[in-house]
Design goal:
- The structure is a single chain.
- By secondary structure, the chain is of the alpha/beta class.
- The protein folds into three domains: about 325 residues, ABC transporter type 1, transmembrane domain (ABC transporter transmembrane region fold); about 180 residues, P-loop containing nucleotide triphosphate hydrolases (Rossmann fold, 3-Layer(aba) Sandwich), CATH 3.40.50; about 70 residues, 3-Layer(aba) Sandwich (Rossmann fold), CATH 3.40.50.300.
- The chain has 21 helices and twelve strands.
- Strands 6-9-10-3-11-12 form a six-stranded mixed β-sheet, with helices on both faces.
- Helix 18 links the parallel strand 9 and strand 10.
- The chain is elongated, with a radius of gyration of 35 Å.
- The structure holds adenosine-5'-triphosphate.
- Adenosine-5'-triphosphate binds next to helix 12.
């Protein structure tokens, strides 16, 4: 299980980045190898065209001009013009092709990470702020676009152009060429030291960016509480602290990153100076004027790719700090997953049994549920009651296998649910959380979420049975009214009615319902009760119940306290016992009844 984390805590990396991860990155390029090849070919062609420049110049200075050969000069000029046009065309194509490949790559990576997130269990989302997950899918991946497309292609083309330039340089004058390379080892050592510091700085920066994102996300989610308690100043102060840490680590990272640049720049200038010095000393002896001028042109051609490779390396180190987080998410193993040899749960009748189930949320925390056993017949309604924090929601979460039991087994129609595929299990269950989640879109689509291929007529029929039809028709555009994410424009009761309709449409054999505690006006309450009765009919239902009417109507009431089932029976049976339920009834429900 992932280590728990908050916005003011840097995340520890579970596994450091290693060379194998670069191979994984390369895998993303495989589908684009053909397009990358064409882009690369165009770059090479462009580079060859560019490289011809100094060569043509040399011919002009050393041969055409001294011999006053105008025909040769015109030919050289025409050839030069053609090389410029070719280089320009290739350059344009490259920008277009690389941008497109880069965006495709980003989409692939983003899809992979999003798809993986869909499979991760509740425990993963419980363990860290959602803002820290968000930043991986959006921002971290953005930083890779340029590196993977532009950067990589440039690297290859730069390497090739470096080799070609070196060949030309050696061909022109090997002594000057060796002199040009004399400072390269110094550069290598400098680069090594910078990259160690840079990786560390960027890892810290990625953490601070993640913290900032987490705090912003949390603040927006909690804005109503912040404003309700007039805590805006406090929120701003906290934000300021997190943002300042982000600023400082950014400046540090940039400071280190830019340390590479002066190194490369100084060495390139020193090398050029050295060639001037040697060349001028020996002009006419070991080099002709044309050779020296051409050579100085090649020195530029030589340093450009070296500088580019240095920049690529720089971006690679920066991106590594983000890549390791992306791979960490991709490598997060779903704790709840299909067991080897899992089979599809056949259509169920709805017999449910908890067989001596114990459960804890974290490996190092005490058991939340202890030896819970009960049995529900198909079609029965089971109400779970008990004090807050007793473990009622935990029981129903285990039923849908949102978490794996620590000990014991949950059986449906006699089959241990840990042996069946999660999809086949959840497809036969309807889970309604206390706070109904509404997706942005229209009401129709929100109800249809229960069965994506449902027709409009089916949706409306479900809404009618769930008693949601009346209020929906009164909305501005009826079923086509647009609602915001989380359904902020709807009342709590309306959201619940939509959830009823959604679940009815899904028609699950087992229904799990965390009954809302929110106060609802008596008219909506009647509607909800009616809707609920239709929902419960003919399916095994588990309700974390807060309304007395629901509890009384249940076939079985399970009284949960401190992670155990302390009493079980019908309302009348349990009242007659004068035990915990009786006390709960006296202290909470009786008052409601009166
Ligand atoms: N995701 C979680 N991670 C760790 N501990 C949790 C998690 N969810 C609940 N708990 C703990 O497990 C215990 C049981 O919680 P649970 O939500 O099952 O109680 P409940 O009976 O449903 O309470 P309520 O009536 O207030 O909803 C509590 O002590 C709670 O703090």
């Amino acid at each position: 299980m992932a280590k728990r984390n908050t916005y003011d805590e840097d995340e520890e990396l579970e596994e450091k980045f290693n060379l194998h991860d670069y191979v994984r990155v390369a895998h993303y390029l495989i589908p684009y190898r053909r397009r990358l090849g064409i882009a690369l070919a165009s770059i090479l062609l462009g580079n060859v065209a560019m490289i011809m420049g100094p060569f043509l110049l040399k011919s002009a200075i050393d041969s055409a001009i001294p011999q006053h050969d105008m025909t040769q000069l015109w030919q050289l000029s025409a050839f030069f013009l053609i090389t410029l046009v070719v280089a320009f065309g290739c350059f344009r194509y490259r920008i277009w092709a690389i941008t497109e490949i880069g965006q495709d790559l980003l989409k692939d990576m983003r899809t992979d990470i999003f798809t993986h997130l869909q499979e991760l269990p509740f425990s993963y989302f419980d363990s860290r702020p959602h803002g820290k997950i968000l930043i991986r899918v959006v921002n971290y991946i953005n930083t890779l676009s340029d590196l993977l497309s532009n950067g990589l292609i440039n690297l290859i083309s730069d390497l090739i152009s470096l080799v070609v330039t070196l060949i030309f340089m050696f061909a022109i004058n090997w002594r000057l060429t060796l002199a040009s390379l004399v400072l390269i080892p110094v550069l290598a050592v400098w680069t090594y030291f910078v990259q160690v510091a840079q990786h560390k700085a960027y890892r810290e920066l990625s953490n601070k960016q993640s913290n900032l994102n987490a705090y912003i996300h949390e603040s927006i989610a909690g804005i109503k509480v912040t404003q309700g308690f007039a805590q805006e100043a406090n929120a701003i102060e906290t934000f300021d602290g997190v943002a300042e840490e982000n600023r400082q680590s950014y400046m540090k990272a940039i400071y280190v990153q830019f340390a590479l640049w002066p190194g490369v720049q100084n060495i390139s200038v020193l090398t050029t100076a050295l060639i001037y010095y040697i060349g001028i000393q020996h002009v006419g002896v070991i080099v002709s004027t044309g050779t020296l001028i051409a050579f100085l042109g090649y020195i530029n051609n030589f340093w450009n790719p070296v500088i580019n490779i240095g920049n690529f390396y720089n971006s690679l180190i920066t991106a590594t700090a983000y890549l390791e987080r992306i791979f960490e998410t991709l490598d997060e193993q779903p704790e709840v997953k299909d067991a080897p040899g899992a089979f599809a749960l056949p259509p169920i009748k709805g017999d449910v049994q908890f067989d001596d189930v114990s459960f804890r949320y974290d490996a190092d925390s005490p058991m939340t549920l202890k030896h819970v056993s009960f049995h529900a017949e198909p079609g029965q309604t089971i109400a779970l009651v008990g004090p807050t924090g007793a473990g009622k929601s935990t029981i129903i979460n285990l039923l849908s296998r949102f978490y794996n039991v620590t000990q014991g087994a949950v059986l449906i129609d006699g089959v241990d649910i840990s042996r069946v595929t999660i999809e086949s299990l959840r497809a036969q269950m309807g889970v309604m959380q206390q706070d109904t989640f509404i997706f942005s879109g229209d009401i129709l689509d929100n109800i249809r979420y229960g069965k994506l291929d449902a027709t409009e007529e089916e949706v409306i029929a479900a809404a009618k049975v769930a008693r949601a039809d009346d209020f929906i028709r009164q909305l501005k555009d009826g079923y086509h009214t647009t609602v915001q994410e989380r359904g902020v424009t709807l009342s709590a009761g309306q959201r619940q009615l939509i959830a009823f309709a959604r679940t009815l449409l899904a028609d699950p054999r087992i229904l799990i319902l965390d009954e809302a505690t929110a106060a609802i006006d008596s008219q909506t309450e009647i509607l909800l009760q009616e809707g609920l009765q239709h929902l419960l009919a003919g399916r095994t239902s588990f309700i974390v119940a807060h309304r007395l009417s629901t509890i009384r109507a249940a076939d079985q009431i399970l009284v949960v306290n401190d992670g155990q089932i302390v009493e079980a029976g019908t309302h009348q049976e349990l009242l007659a016992k004068h035990g915990e339920y009786f006390q709960l009834y006296e202290s909470q429900y009786k008052m409601l009844e009166e």
